[in-house]
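user: Kindly work through both lines:
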Amino acid sequence: MSSITLTLLLSLLTIHPLNFCTAHSHFEVLCIESEQHALLIFKQHLLDPSNRLASWASEVDCCDWVSVLYHNVTSHVLQLPYERSMFSGKINPSLLDLKHLIYLDLNGNDFNYTPIPKLLSSMGSLRYLHLSFVRFGGLIPHQLGNLSKLHYLNLGSYYFSSNSLYVKKLQWLSGLPLLQHLDLNNKLPSLLELRLSNFNISGFIPSIPSINFSSLATLDLSLNSFENTSIPFWFQGTIPVHIQNLTSLRHLDLSGNGFNSSIRNWLYSFSHLEFLNLGSNYLQGKVPRSLGKLCNLKVIRFFENTSNLFWVFGLHNLVSLHLFGNQFQGPIPVHLQNLTSLRHLDLSWNQFQGPIPWSIGNLSSLRSLDLESNQINGTVTQILGQLSKLESLNIGLNMLEGAVSEVHFANSMRLKALFASQNRLTLEVSDNWTPPFQLNHLDLGSWNLGPKFPLWLCSQRQLLTLGISNTRILDEVPPSFWNLTSQLTYLNISHNQIYGEIPHIPMIMSSSLVLDVSSNNFTGLLPCISSNVTFLDLSNNSLSGSISHFLCYKMNEPKNMQFLNLGKNLLSGKLSNCWMMWKNLYALNLGKNNFTGSIPTSIGSLVSLSYLHLDNNRFSRKLPSSLKNCKQLVTIDVAKNDFVGSIPSWIGHRLSSLVILNLHSNNFHGYIPKELCSLTSLQILDLSHNKLFGSIPKCVHNFSAMATSNSSNYPFSLLPWSSEYISAPFESQLVAIKGKDLEYSTTLQLVKIIDLSNNNLSGEIPEEVMHLNGLQSLNLSFNILTGRIPENIGDMGSVESIDFSSNQLFGQIPQSMSNLTFLSQLNLSNNNLIGKIPSSTQLQSLDASSFFGNKLCGPPLIDNCTIKDVQPNTEKKECKAFSGVDVDWFYVGMAHGFVVGFWVVLSPLLLNKQWRFLYFQFLDHLGYKLRGLVAQTW
């Protein structure tokens, strides 16, 4: 709480002496009946899961209710402090009967983005109104300007909320002459603080001359994106020029807007300024050296801009310097040693090169140093050895190398956070080393810590987060370490060779949000994990057995799990029908195990699910229709199972957000449902290796995401929430493209393919497919497609791989195919194509096998299509058929037998459709087996 806010509260208490309504009061006070009745009605319309209002009962005098504050003489209720009480529901108009209420604090409750009740504007006695983080939404009612006695107004909202509050006009502020603290937006002669951070300001009215900002000490306009909106009524130009009149400013925050001008020279006149934040803009030019005259500056934040650095070296009172995310290059300036008062230095996410200068060691007051994500090399000994007051050090994502020993940490008694991952460093300490520090946060990812498990970690009793992934550990986890995990909120020991069993401890990671032990050699059963865990990755181990005890553990407790990855293990058995309590799941990966049976219907309870991977198991029967309830699905991957039935039409009707649909290598049969064409966001469609028949739907041109080369708008990020500890995308997909199985992760949003190969599809290739000019791979091989290759195939400007092999296509290769400049893989073999192969750089550079099994000529084939002179045989031959001498009756009989045998086989196929289908299906499967034998031989 700021000193200004504290002053306001003290003044309120001075004007109105308060007592708590409790049985221990020195005075016998009876609650005013009308006010007690009003509070009871107010309670009825609130949801109170924490039972905060349990004492509010009609048979109990309201002066005995918890946290009701009243006047010690008049007994009127004056204050209702119910911040962070987990209330929801509605605010009832009965509050208007509390005519003497001066203090209302509902901060931190949840009213589900309903509008701010206009009834609050009729509570004329209010002097303190705190509604921040209450999840109100919509337009702020201008009627709040009726609260003329307000000293304090806070309507702050959640950052980045799509349903947050917004304001169109600010004229109503002129009705608040006593206001001293405004957290949203405000102005008046007595105004000391104006905070408008992340407030969606738009549509401002013209200037109001009566407003005076001469007393303003704090101005926070961050995160408003003024470049896309009207500038507030007291602004002129890109960076607000009229700020120069605010001569009392001590705190100025203009970060997170779209200012694209240069930094104004008039800023140097702010002689009282202590805090300056111009970060996350598009500022141009150099920072004026005149800012170096602001000798009272203590905190500077210039991040994500392009600016020079040297002007800060004369600011000897600087305590915090944050310059992350700029474009600074070259060595770290040695002149930083002049800032002897500096406690916090952040130079992260720049392009600094070379070693860490020894002069950094002269900053003896330094508490935190952040050099993450630069190109710094050399060692870190000078930092660890000299900065004895250092509490937080971040040197991750650099090129530091060499050995770090226990001697280097001898002066690091105060160290609380060490982030040093993604370097080439080796820790060389004895097995019985006890560090001088007690860390809260530690990340040594990609260090060399092995091969033994670092036992010194067990001495860190205050650890909250730990990352030691990819550290060459080849050992078993000691039991004392597992006991430590109950306090951790983040643990990452992935990508090592750690073996043994994960203990079956119900409270393991009881405080955790994130647990990642993937890519190790753990064996045994799945452990039971606390319901508090949000992110769990046990993939790529050797865990075995059933999943039932894990899924159904403590079914009376809702699970907070959002990400669950059990892929690439040896898990087996059927899935239990226990998914009802896992409704927060956002991503589920059970792929590459040995699960059997059907998918339980309760999986439809996962209404928040976006990513579903069940591939490479032995699931059978039909896809459960309850999946249609999972309307947020972006990925469905059930490849390489034994699912049967037709492809459900509800996939197209209900799952409109689908980007990836992978059903390959199952036993789906029937037609491709036209409803799939409704999936306009679809980028990967793989229905290969099934038993589908019929034609390819012409409506495929509705796949609008495939019709453009732009990347997907859908963020394939790890989770809907971000974390500084989780940076890699979790969503990856194995895709058959260019004749190979390729796994995409970071570039998955760029991949666009259709694979309908190895089915029994018939008819012609629709021209509409060629409208998908963002498609990279099109595979229609091993079907019974007929007709010509569409003439407009050259419109597919982004295609890299085409496979039409083993069909019954005829005619010539379209000349437009020579326009496919990105084409690197083509297979037209085993069709009935004729004529010359079109000339182009791409087509002639392909392997000749791409055209085998046709009647084609021209490069890259040996037959270059030249016309050869053929001499006719002029010798007259007499018909000797009647002579009986030269007639070879063996061949005559063979021809007759062939004709008879041909029609004996063909006639039933022509007359019976079912026999015809079964016959071709038999040939198809025989072909698969032959290809498999050939592949094994090679």
User: Anything to note?
Assistant: The mean pLDDT is 78. The first strand starts at residue 18 and ends at 20. The radius of gyration is 37 Å. Residues 913-937 form the longest helix (25 residues).
